[in-house]
Amino acid sequence: MALAVLGAAVLIYGLTAYVLLPWAWTHYEHQKGLAGLTMVTHTSQGIPGDPINVGMVGTRADVLCAMHAAGWYPADPITFRSSVEIVGSVILRRPYDDAPVSNLYYDGRRQDLAFEKPVGESADRRHHVRLWEVLKQGEENRPVWLGSATFDRDVGLSRDTGQVTHHIAPDIDAERDGLTNDLKNSKVVEAVYEVSGVGPTFIGRNGEGDRYFTDGEVKISRLVPGCDRKAETAVELKNPPFVDLKNETWKALAGLLQAGVAAK
Protein backbone atom coordinates (compact mmCIF):
# COMPACT_ATOMS: atom_id res chain seq x y z
CA MET A 1 0.00 0.00 0.00
CA ALA A 2 2.78 2.40 0.97
CA LEU A 3 4.62 1.69 -2.28
CA ALA A 4 1.44 2.36 -4.26
CA VAL A 5 0.95 5.72 -2.52
CA LEU A 6 4.60 6.62 -3.11
CA GLY A 7 4.34 5.65 -6.76
CA ALA A 8 1.20 7.74 -7.20
CA ALA A 9 2.87 10.71 -5.52
CA VAL A 10 5.91 10.44 -7.80
CA LEU A 11 3.66 10.17 -10.86
CA ILE A 12 1.63 13.23 -9.85
CA TYR A 13 4.79 15.19 -9.16
CA GLY A 14 6.30 14.21 -12.51
CA LEU A 15 3.19 15.16 -14.47
CA THR A 16 2.83 18.46 -12.62
CA ALA A 17 6.48 19.55 -12.69
CA TYR A 18 7.41 18.32 -16.16
CA VAL A 19 4.18 18.42 -18.15
CA LEU A 20 1.33 20.51 -16.72
CA LEU A 21 3.21 23.52 -15.34
CA PRO A 22 5.57 23.94 -18.33
CA TRP A 23 2.56 23.69 -20.63
CA ALA A 24 0.64 26.27 -18.60
CA TRP A 25 3.35 28.94 -18.66
CA THR A 26 4.55 28.39 -22.23
CA HIS A 27 3.42 31.38 -24.31
CA TYR A 28 4.22 32.91 -27.68
CA GLU A 29 1.14 35.04 -28.22
CA HIS A 30 3.21 38.10 -29.21
CA GLN A 31 5.65 36.23 -31.48
CA LYS A 32 4.11 32.96 -32.68
CA GLY A 33 7.03 32.14 -35.00
CA LEU A 34 9.26 31.42 -32.01
CA ALA A 35 7.14 28.51 -30.79
CA GLY A 36 9.07 25.27 -30.99
CA LEU A 37 12.51 26.88 -31.35
CA THR A 38 15.29 25.84 -28.99
CA MET A 39 16.09 28.42 -26.32
CA VAL A 40 19.67 27.48 -25.48
CA THR A 41 22.96 28.05 -27.27
CA HIS A 42 25.79 25.51 -27.65
CA THR A 43 29.57 25.62 -27.64
CA SER A 44 31.63 24.46 -30.60
CA GLN A 45 31.92 21.08 -28.83
CA GLY A 46 28.12 20.78 -28.73
CA ILE A 47 27.90 21.45 -24.97
CA PRO A 48 24.76 23.43 -23.93
CA GLY A 49 25.84 27.05 -23.45
CA ASP A 50 24.15 30.21 -22.21
CA PRO A 51 20.35 30.24 -22.46
CA ILE A 52 18.44 32.64 -24.69
CA ASN A 53 17.02 35.47 -22.55
CA VAL A 54 16.66 38.55 -24.78
CA GLY A 55 15.32 39.40 -28.20
CA MET A 56 14.92 42.33 -30.57
CA VAL A 57 12.63 43.13 -33.47
CA GLY A 58 14.12 45.16 -36.30
CA THR A 59 16.59 45.11 -39.15
CA ARG A 60 20.31 44.61 -38.64
CA ALA A 61 20.74 48.39 -39.04
CA ASP A 62 18.06 48.97 -36.39
CA VAL A 63 19.91 46.70 -33.95
CA LEU A 64 23.26 48.38 -34.61
CA CYS A 65 21.79 51.86 -34.17
CA ALA A 66 19.89 50.90 -31.01
CA MET A 67 22.88 49.29 -29.32
CA HIS A 68 25.08 52.27 -30.19
CA ALA A 69 22.49 54.62 -28.68
CA ALA A 70 22.36 52.45 -25.55
CA GLY A 71 26.13 52.70 -25.04
CA TRP A 72 27.08 49.13 -26.00
CA TYR A 73 30.18 48.46 -28.16
CA PRO A 74 30.37 45.96 -31.05
CA ALA A 75 32.80 43.21 -30.08
CA ASP A 76 35.98 42.76 -32.10
CA PRO A 77 36.37 39.50 -34.04
CA ILE A 78 38.54 36.84 -32.44
CA THR A 79 42.03 37.12 -33.91
CA PHE A 80 45.54 36.55 -32.56
CA ARG A 81 45.91 40.30 -32.07
CA SER A 82 42.59 40.76 -30.27
CA SER A 83 43.33 37.73 -28.08
CA VAL A 84 46.68 39.25 -27.06
CA GLU A 85 44.95 42.58 -26.41
CA ILE A 86 42.31 41.09 -24.11
CA VAL A 87 44.98 39.23 -22.10
CA GLY A 88 46.94 42.48 -21.83
CA SER A 89 43.80 44.31 -20.74
CA VAL A 90 43.20 41.87 -17.90
CA ILE A 91 46.83 41.61 -16.73
CA LEU A 92 47.69 45.31 -17.05
CA ARG A 93 44.24 46.57 -15.95
CA ARG A 94 43.73 48.72 -19.01
CA PRO A 95 40.49 49.34 -20.93
CA TYR A 96 39.45 47.32 -23.97
CA ASP A 97 35.88 48.47 -24.66
CA ASP A 98 35.33 46.31 -27.75
CA ALA A 99 37.12 43.15 -26.63
CA PRO A 100 36.14 39.95 -28.49
CA VAL A 101 33.68 37.44 -27.08
CA SER A 102 33.98 33.70 -27.55
CA ASN A 103 31.77 32.05 -30.12
CA LEU A 104 28.53 30.33 -29.18
CA TYR A 105 26.24 28.58 -31.63
CA TYR A 106 22.50 28.70 -32.17
CA ASP A 107 20.85 26.47 -34.73
CA GLY A 108 24.32 25.42 -35.87
CA ARG A 109 25.77 28.89 -36.51
CA ARG A 110 27.78 31.30 -34.43
CA GLN A 111 26.41 34.67 -33.36
CA ASP A 112 25.56 37.19 -36.05
CA LEU A 113 26.32 40.15 -33.77
CA ALA A 114 27.96 40.64 -30.38
CA PHE A 115 28.07 43.68 -28.12
CA GLU A 116 29.50 44.55 -24.75
CA LYS A 117 29.35 47.23 -22.06
CA PRO A 118 32.57 47.39 -20.03
CA VAL A 119 32.70 47.62 -16.25
CA GLY A 120 35.80 48.86 -14.45
CA GLU A 121 39.32 49.19 -15.80
CA SER A 122 39.79 46.03 -17.87
CA ALA A 123 38.03 43.43 -19.98
CA ASP A 124 37.68 40.85 -17.20
CA ARG A 125 34.33 42.32 -16.08
CA ARG A 126 31.72 43.34 -18.66
CA HIS A 127 28.11 43.03 -19.72
CA HIS A 128 27.81 41.31 -23.09
CA VAL A 129 25.23 39.88 -25.45
CA ARG A 130 25.34 37.64 -28.52
CA LEU A 131 22.53 37.94 -31.08
CA TRP A 132 21.21 35.71 -33.87
CA GLU A 133 18.64 36.62 -36.52
CA VAL A 134 16.14 33.75 -36.23
CA LEU A 135 13.10 34.99 -38.17
CA LYS A 136 13.23 37.00 -41.37
CA GLN A 137 9.69 38.19 -40.70
CA GLY A 138 7.89 38.02 -37.36
CA GLU A 139 4.46 39.13 -36.16
CA GLU A 140 5.36 42.79 -36.84
CA ASN A 141 6.56 41.94 -40.39
CA ARG A 142 10.13 42.69 -39.32
CA PRO A 143 13.15 40.47 -38.55
CA VAL A 144 13.35 38.89 -35.11
CA TRP A 145 16.62 38.39 -33.22
CA LEU A 146 17.25 36.17 -30.21
CA GLY A 147 20.18 36.63 -27.89
CA SER A 148 21.96 35.62 -24.73
CA ALA A 149 22.90 38.43 -22.33
CA THR A 150 25.25 37.62 -19.43
CA PHE A 151 27.73 39.38 -17.14
CA ASP A 152 31.37 38.33 -17.21
CA ARG A 153 32.49 38.48 -13.57
CA ASP A 154 36.09 37.29 -14.01
CA VAL A 155 38.54 35.33 -16.15
CA GLY A 156 39.45 31.74 -15.37
CA LEU A 157 39.63 28.22 -16.79
CA SER A 158 36.69 26.38 -18.31
CA ARG A 159 35.52 23.53 -16.08
CA ASP A 160 34.74 21.45 -19.20
CA THR A 161 37.62 22.22 -21.60
CA GLY A 162 40.35 23.77 -19.44
CA GLN A 163 40.61 26.74 -21.83
CA VAL A 164 41.02 30.34 -20.62
CA THR A 165 37.58 31.93 -20.62
CA HIS A 166 35.27 34.35 -18.84
CA HIS A 167 32.99 33.10 -16.07
CA ILE A 168 29.47 34.53 -15.87
CA ALA A 169 27.47 35.78 -12.91
CA PRO A 170 24.54 33.45 -12.11
CA ASP A 171 21.67 35.97 -12.22
CA ILE A 172 21.12 36.16 -15.97
CA ASP A 173 17.69 37.77 -15.52
CA ALA A 174 19.46 40.86 -14.15
CA GLU A 175 21.46 41.07 -17.37
CA ARG A 176 18.37 40.62 -19.51
CA ASP A 177 16.58 43.39 -17.65
CA GLY A 178 19.66 45.65 -17.63
CA LEU A 179 20.05 45.52 -21.41
CA THR A 180 16.32 46.07 -21.91
CA ASN A 181 16.41 49.11 -19.62
CA ASP A 182 19.45 50.53 -21.44
CA LEU A 183 17.51 50.34 -24.70
CA LYS A 184 14.36 51.83 -23.17
CA ASN A 185 16.28 54.66 -21.51
CA SER A 186 17.84 55.48 -24.88
CA LYS A 187 14.32 55.81 -26.31
CA VAL A 188 14.90 53.29 -29.10
CA VAL A 189 12.16 50.84 -28.06
CA GLU A 190 8.52 50.97 -29.12
CA ALA A 191 7.29 47.97 -27.10
CA VAL A 192 8.56 45.26 -24.76
CA TYR A 193 7.04 41.81 -24.27
CA GLU A 194 8.00 38.35 -23.09
CA VAL A 195 7.92 34.88 -24.62
CA SER A 196 8.88 31.55 -23.10
CA GLY A 197 12.55 30.66 -22.96
CA VAL A 198 14.18 27.74 -21.16
CA GLY A 199 11.63 27.87 -18.35
CA PRO A 200 12.31 28.37 -14.61
CA THR A 201 15.79 27.06 -13.85
CA PHE A 202 17.33 26.91 -10.37
CA ILE A 203 20.69 25.30 -11.08
CA GLY A 204 21.55 25.60 -14.75
CA ARG A 205 25.08 25.15 -16.11
CA ASN A 206 26.47 26.79 -19.22
CA GLY A 207 29.18 25.51 -21.54
CA GLU A 208 31.96 26.59 -19.17
CA GLY A 209 30.32 24.91 -16.20
CA ASP A 210 29.15 28.20 -14.65
CA ARG A 211 25.93 28.10 -12.67
CA TYR A 212 22.96 30.28 -13.62
CA PHE A 213 19.37 30.74 -12.55
CA THR A 214 16.44 32.32 -14.41
CA ASP A 215 12.68 32.66 -14.48
CA GLY A 216 12.95 31.32 -18.03
CA GLU A 217 11.43 34.28 -19.86
CA VAL A 218 12.84 35.95 -22.98
CA LYS A 219 12.35 39.73 -22.96
CA ILE A 220 11.92 41.11 -26.49
CA SER A 221 12.33 44.78 -27.43
CA ARG A 222 10.60 46.04 -30.57
CA LEU A 223 13.00 48.68 -31.83
CA VAL A 224 12.13 51.95 -33.52
CA PRO A 225 12.92 51.70 -37.25
CA GLY A 226 15.87 53.82 -38.37
CA CYS A 227 18.62 55.69 -36.54
CA ASP A 228 16.92 59.08 -36.54
CA ARG A 229 13.75 58.21 -34.62
CA LYS A 230 12.96 58.04 -30.91
CA ALA A 231 10.08 56.61 -28.86
CA GLU A 232 9.19 58.68 -25.80
CA THR A 233 7.61 55.69 -24.05
CA ALA A 234 7.85 51.94 -24.53
CA VAL A 235 4.59 50.01 -24.29
CA GLU A 236 4.75 46.97 -21.96
CA LEU A 237 2.61 44.19 -23.47
CA LYS A 238 0.92 41.87 -20.98
CA ASN A 239 1.63 38.23 -20.22
CA PRO A 240 -1.05 35.60 -19.61
CA PRO A 241 -2.12 35.76 -15.90
CA PHE A 242 -0.57 32.39 -15.03
CA VAL A 243 2.79 33.54 -16.41
CA ASP A 244 2.66 36.67 -14.24
CA LEU A 245 1.90 34.48 -11.22
CA LYS A 246 4.87 32.26 -12.07
CA ASN A 247 7.14 35.28 -12.44
CA GLU A 248 6.07 36.79 -9.11
CA THR A 249 6.67 33.47 -7.40
CA TRP A 250 10.06 33.27 -9.05
CA LYS A 251 11.06 36.73 -7.80
CA ALA A 252 10.63 35.55 -4.21
CA LEU A 253 12.68 32.43 -4.89
CA ALA A 254 15.34 34.43 -6.74
CA GLY A 255 15.81 36.56 -3.63
CA LEU A 256 16.69 33.42 -1.69
CA LEU A 257 19.05 32.29 -4.45
CA GLN A 258 20.81 35.63 -4.44
CA ALA A 259 21.19 35.48 -0.67
CA GLY A 260 22.75 32.02 -1.03
CA VAL A 261 25.17 33.27 -3.71
CA ALA A 262 26.18 36.26 -1.58
CA ALA A 263 26.83 34.00 1.41
CA LYS A 264 29.37 31.90 -0.51
Structure, explained:
By secondary structure, this protein is an alpha+beta fold. It has one domain (28-263). It contains 5 helices and 15 strands. The strands form 4 sheets. Strands 3, 4, 7, 8, 9, 10, 11, 14 and 15 form a 9-stranded mixed beta sheet that branches. Strands 1-2 form a two-stranded antiparallel sheet. Strands 5-6 form a two-stranded antiparallel sheet. The chain is globular and about 70 Å long. It starts with a helix and ends with a helix. Residues 8-20, 78-98 and 160-164 have low confidence and may be disordered.
Total count of strands: 15
Helix content: 25-40%
Low-pLDDT regions: 8-20, 78-98, 160-164
Average pLDDT reading: 80
Q: What string gives the helices and strands in order?
A: HEEEHEHEEEEEEHEEEEEH
CA distance, first residue to last residue: 43 Å
- Rg: 19 Å
* Largest pleated sheet: 9 strands, mixed
List keywords for this structure.
globular; 264 residues
Task: Detail the topology: elements first, then pairings.
Elements: H1 2-25, E1 40-42, E2 48-51, E3 54-57, H2 60-69, E4 73-74, H3 80-92, E5 105-106, E6 109-110, E7 113-118, E8 126-135, E9 144-157, E10 164-168, H4 172-185, E11 189-196, E12 201-205, E13 211-214, E14 217-223, E15 235-236, H5 241-263
Parallel strand pairs: 3-14, 11-15
Antiparallel strand pairs: 1-2, 3-9, 4-7, 5-6, 7-8, 8-9, 9-10, 11-14, 12-13
Q: How do you describe this structure in short?
A:
Helices cover 32% and strands 30% of the residues.
